[in-house]
Amino acid sequence: MENIIREGDDVLLYLDKRRSYLVRIERQKRIHTHKGFIDLTGLIGREFGTRIHSNKGVEFIAFKPTIRDYIFKISRRTQIIYPKDISLIVFFSGIEPGSRVVEGGTGAGALTAALASYVRPSGKVYSYEIRREFLEVAAENLRRIGMIDYVELKNRDLTEGIEERDVDAVILDMATPWLVVPHAYEALRGSGAFVSFSPTVDQVVKTVEALRQYGFAGIETFESMFRGMQIERGRTRPETLMTGHTGYITVARKALK
Predict the structure, then answer these.
(1) pTM for the whole thing?
(2) 20 to 30 A Cα–Cα from 92, which one of 39, 86, 160, 169?
(3) What's the structural domain count of the chain?
(4) Same domain, 89 and 58
């Protein structure tokens, strides 16, 4: 894969772990920061990972954006799922290139983009969202990330039914996931995965009860805590701040009746 920065590419200008800037490369364009401005023209034709200095002599690194970078930087009107939770959702869903996935609750498209990056090039994410204005934002974000071709956005209420059949996974980030459970059972192929992200225990209890009622097996619920480390010789310790509770992940598999 070519690793050269071209006009129209996105670049993550990295200063340190707390400060970075996602920019679109255009000729005669400058990005202004508190450390001075950077002339983006100077990056065209150079390799991703190159170092560039602002007019104040401060060094930045021009990284190629990852899905994680986009998730933190994309436009959004809704709260996005944290990468720590997205990673586990993807892992427990078992999706891979070629998988067909139904998603409930598109939001800004952060989880959608992550799912699409795993099922491409031959798979598809069918993402349901009841609010059209969210779909418009998600479509713009997915185009920028380069994942729109692997997603079908649907302005429909998933609690009223799922159109697809024989899908590999149903993944939900919505207020009433238990109402989708019967539709998920009909849509999933045998052994297919059900994964739901919920912020409250009450939602989890209703969802697990519905999963048991409709014959799902391997039901588990867990949460993820994420704490970084401060690395410095003689002073290495866990960071004072951490990303603690963000939500509960419930997973299950379709068992045939």
Answers:
(1) 0.90
(2) 160
(3) 2
(4) no
DSSP secondary structure letter of residue 96: -
Q: How far from 2 is each of 35, 47, 48, CA to CA, in Å? A: 30, 9, 10
What's the confidence (pLDDT) of residue 1? 66
Q: Do residues 6 and 25 make contact, with C-beta atoms less than 8 angstroms apart?
A: yes
pLDDT above 80: residue 225: yes
**Banded model confidence at residue 257, pLDDT cuts 50, 70, 90:** confident
- Please enumerate, as own/partner, the contacts of 96-99 that have beta carbons within 8 Å and a separation of 24 or more: 96/123, 97/121, 97/122, 97/123, 98/122, 98/123, 99/123, 99/168, 99/169
**4 in any annotated domain:** no
Q: Measured between alpha carbons, how far is 121 from 118 in angstroms, rounded to an integer?
A: 8
Asked if residue 3 belongs to a domain, the reply is no
Q: Is residue 2 situated within a structural domain?
A: no
Residue 27 structural domain:
10-65
Q: What is the mean pLDDT of the chain?
A: 94
Positive or negative, the CA dihedral 241, 243, 246, 252 is: negative
- Residues 144, 54 share a domain: no
Residue 241, token pair as written in the block? 């701040």
What type of residue sits at position 100? R
